[in-house]
Design brief:
Blueprint (H helix, E strand, L loop, with lengths): L1 H22 L6 H22 L4 E4 L3 E3 L6 E9 L1 H5 L6 E8 L2 E9 L4 E6 L4 E3 L2 E2 L12 E4 L9 H11 L5 E3 L4 H9 L5 E4 L4 H13 L3 E3 L13 E4 L1 H11 L4
Parallel strand pairs: 1-3, 9-10, 9-11
Antiparallel strand pairs: 1-2, 3-4, 4-5, 5-6, 6-7, 7-8, 11-13, 12-13
This protein binds D-MYO-inositol-1-phosphate (IPD).
D-MYO-inositol-1-phosphate (IPD) binds next to strand 3 and helix 3.
C-alpha cells in the first residue's frame, strides 16, 4: 500500500506543481485535475493489483471491480480533497482502505505535499511516518478543536448542517472545515483535532480513516452512536472521552 501510494504521489506532486500556472487561465484547471485524478487512480490500481492480483476494488473514478478472491477489496480515493487540489491548496491525500469480508483491516492516508503518511493495520496500531499515534487526551468540550465538512453545492443537507454547527459552536474551542475527510480523520487519530463529524461521505473518503481513528484509541460511529455504515457515510469521530458529549451536542441534547 505504501509503495503504491508513493508511486501515485510522485505524479500528483508534479501535477499539483502545474496548478498554479493553470489558475490564471480562463478555462481553469478542472479538466486537468480530473485527468490527474484518473492517472493517479490507474497507478494505484496497477500497483495494488501487482501486489494482490485477486483482490477487488472500489474506486472513486472507476467504481467497483469484483476480485476473484471474493473476500478482499481495496477502497481507494486517488485525490481526496479534489477542490483543494483544484485551487492550489496543499491539503489533499491519497486514501486506501483494505476491506476483508466487510471489515476494514488496513488503511493508509498520504498527504504527499506535507510528506505525511498515516497508516494502520487492524490490531497493530496507527502510525504517522514512524511515530505511533494516539488520539488527544482532552476531556473538556470547551478546549476541544473539532473539524467538520459542509455539503458541496448540489448535495442535500445544508439546513441540517447549519443546525448541527449552531449546536456545536458555542460549546467548543473552534471548528475547522479543511476539505479532506480522510485527513480530518487522520488528524483525529494524531490528536490534532479532538473530534470530527460529517454526513454523506463516500466509502473511499472514510474507509482508511476509520481504522486510523480506532487504532489510535479513538471512537467512531454513526450519529446515533451505532456502528458507522460505509454506504451511508455519516461519521462522528473523537477521543473516547469526547465522543459521547459530541454525539449529544449534535443531537441537540446538550
Ligand atoms: C470530499 C472531501 C471533503 C468532504 C466531501 C468529499 P473528494 O472528497 O473529503 O472534505 O467534505 O464530502 O466528497 O470529492 O475531494 O474526493
Amino acid at each position: 500500500m505504501t509503495a503504491a501510494a508513493q508511486k501515485a504521489a510522485r505524479g500528483l506532486k508534479r501535477d499539483f506543481g502545474e496548478i498554479e500556472q493553470l489558475q490564471v487561465s480562463r478555462k481553469g484547471p478542472s479538466d486537468f485535475v480530473s485527468a490527474a485524478d484518473v492517472k493517479a487512480e490507474k497507478v494505484l490500481r496497477q500497483e495494488l493489483l501487482k501486489a494482490r492480483p485477486r483482490f477487488g476494488f472500489l474506486m472513486e473514478e472507476s467504481g467497483e471491480t469484483k476480485g476473484e478472491d471474493g473476500h478482499h477489496r481495496w477502497i481507494v480515493d486517488p485525490i481526496d480533497g479534489t477542490t483543494n487540489f483544484l485551487h492550489g491548496i496543499p491539503h489533499f491525500a491519497i486514501s486506501i482502505g483494505l476491506e476483508m469480508d466487510g471489515d476494514i483491516i488496513a488503511g493508509l492516508v498520504f498527504n504527499p505535499i506535507a510528506d505525511e503518511m498515516y497508516y494502520a493495520e487492524k490490531g497493530k496500531g496507527a502510525f504517522l511516518n514512524d511515530r505511533r499515534l494516539r488520539v488527544s487526551a482532552r476531556d473538556s468540550l470547551a478546549d476541544a478543536l473539532l473539524a467538520t465538512g459542509i455539503p458541496f453545492r448540489g448535495r442535500p443537507g445544508h439546513a441540517p448542517f447549519l443546525t448541527e454547527l449552531e449546536r456545536v459552536m458555542p460549546h467548543v474551542a473552534g471548528v475547522r472545515r479543511a476539505g479532506t475527510a480522510s485527513l480530518d480523520l487522520a488528524y483525529v487519530a494524531s490528536g490534532r483535532y479532538d473530534g470530527y463529524w460529517e454526513k454523506g461521505l463516500q466509502p473511499w473518503d472514510v474507509a482508511a480513516g476509520i481504522l486510523l481513528v480506532r487504532e489510535a484509541g479513538g471512537f467512531i460511529s454513526d450519529f446515533d452512536g451505532s456502528k458507522e455504515d460505509l454506504a451511508k457515510g455519516h461519521v462522528v469521530a473523537a477521543n473516547a472521552k469526547l465522543h459521547k458529549p459530541i454525539l449529544d451536542l449534535l443531537a441537540g441534547k446538550a
